[in-house]
Amino acid sequence: MRTTSNPAFKNLPTAGGYANFNHGQGGYGAPFGQAPAAPPQTARPMTIDDVVTKTAITLAIAVVTGAVTYLMGPIALSLALPAALIGLVISLVIIFKKKVSPALVIAYSVVEGVFLGGISYLFAMIVGNPGIILQAIAGTVGVFAAMLVVYKTGAIRVTPKLTKWIIGAVAGVAVLMLVNLIASFFVQGGLGLRDGGGLAIAFSLLCIGIAAFSFLLDFDAADQAIKGGVDAKFAWYIAFGLMTTLVWLYLEILRLLSYFQND
Where are the transmembrane segments (predicted)? Predict the structure, then answer.
């Protein structure tokens, strides 16, 4: 399986290590030159339906909880930061936990929905236009669908070179965000990456582009896992990974739209 920029996919087993493990090879207790019986499979291999179903469940939970939180009005603002912190902790547990936990993925979806509802209400209040939320959602869905078509048609192939470029780009923007945050404590506006100016618009467009290309790595990791016959339960990891990229993309699109609303 190729390397991916999404840490959630690092928990997926190596492709090919599930469906045919040791089948057709000599082993202890088998006559010389004779293949042992295939080991019993205690679980079925993952299919595209598993990925679609688990991803739909996680996204539906996030959307519903986000909408409910948004409709709470000003209360949503007080919930955003705690939800972000709790979501970060849960995501780290999911990433470093060796065993698949659907309950944790669902819990992450709920908390992330609360965070998105609160942050969406904040942006809508700042720009004075609730319609910006639907625009950001439409943009996120559009980019996701476009990149899925690009991947399925092979218009852009996921090569080791492209993978390294995307991973480097993700690491680069993460460092810039951190530096800008630290700089904002000493200089108003920090490096100007989030102040709504021309540089901020260019930076948001860059982030949107990198997030979009990250989907290619996510799709490829999922595709390799399906072809490798990994356990169906790992579809929860893929759903979690896709959602983290979708959340990043949504926030960047929402931020970009807010810049133009303020003009």
Answer: 51-71, 77-96, 103-126, 132-153, 165-187, 199-222, 234-251
